[in-house]
């Protein structure tokens, strides 16, 4: 889980405890840096205190949610009349998650809330579509594929997936072939392509931002991979098809006969 946070020092320190070493925390010092980080780097959740002096206010918090709906926004603030006025106004605009310092930020409870948020809808749709085939693989392989689809930037090659599954590359090819998949290469690419499409549906993102965010060397690589898996380039797909059709196109390609020798 990748978390970007704009908080006063006491709240930032507590958030570090909540996240521990398992998750990535990126602190920022202002609104411009927050938006730039959300736009260009991996970020599942933005934790913000809208009462931070001088920079992040109600309008900026609402704008963050509007521009980047794929990033979940959590308001983490201290109990005060001014903070409650801000929270009420944000709630009227759809804010769902508020955590109050020293009231409901017990590390275990706060951590459970955050861990339940990042589920990217398209990734879960792809996992559901692949469920029957994944059930024909060993649990460690299915588990590694689930982790890859939920955190695709950490899996850039077949070797990463094989390591996550605790087996050799050759063993992984055999297991996935027996389950009906075209190749591990396409499966690894599919995880990032599906996340790329989810990001592209955010109004505030450019193709260059999405490409960098997912670790592609340049946008043309993302163009080529999405064309192979979904039959459309990113900017074409962005306005032409919905999430369900995109996931179906990708899933179908994962089981299509291979047209060439797959080799990363």
Low-pLDDT segments:
258-264
Range of strand content: 5-15%
Task: Tell me the series of helices and strands, N- to C-terminal.
Answer: EHEHEHEHEHHHHHHHHHHH
Determine the mean pLDDT.
85
Give the number of helices: 15
Distance between the termini: 26 Å
Which CATH class of the largest domain applies here?
Mainly Alpha
Radius of gyration using CA atoms only: 20 Å
Lay out the secondary structure:
Blueprint: E1 2-6, H1 9-19, E2 24-27, H2 31-40, E3 45-48, H3 58-67, E4 72-77, H4 81-92, E5 97-100, H5 107-115, H6 121-129, H7 131-134, H8 139-150, H9 158-165, H10 169-178, H11 184-200, H12 207-213, H13 219-230, H14 234-240, H15 243-254
Parallel strand pairs: 1-2, 1-3, 3-4, 4-5
Short description:
This protein has helices at residues 9-19, 31-40, 58-67, 81-92, 107-115, 121-129, 131-134, 139-150, 158-165, 169-178, 184-200, 207-213, 219-230, 234-240, 243-254, and strands at residues 2-6, 24-27, 45-48, 72-77, 97-100.
Which features characterize this protein?
264 residues, alpha/beta, Rossmann fold, Arc Repressor Mutant, subunit A, 2 domains, five-stranded parallel beta sheet, 15 helices, 9% strand, disordered C terminus
Tell me about this structure:
Strands 2-1-3-4-5 form a five-stranded parallel sheet, sandwiched between helices. Helix 6 packs across helix 15, helix 11 packs across helix 13 and helix 11 packs antiparallel against helix 15. The protein folds into two domains: 114 residues, Rossmann fold; 134 residues, Orthogonal Bundle (Arc Repressor Mutant, subunit A). With 264 residues, it is α/β, with parallel strands linked by helices. 35% of the residues are buried. It contains 15 helices and five strands. Helix 3 links the parallel strand 3 and strand 4.
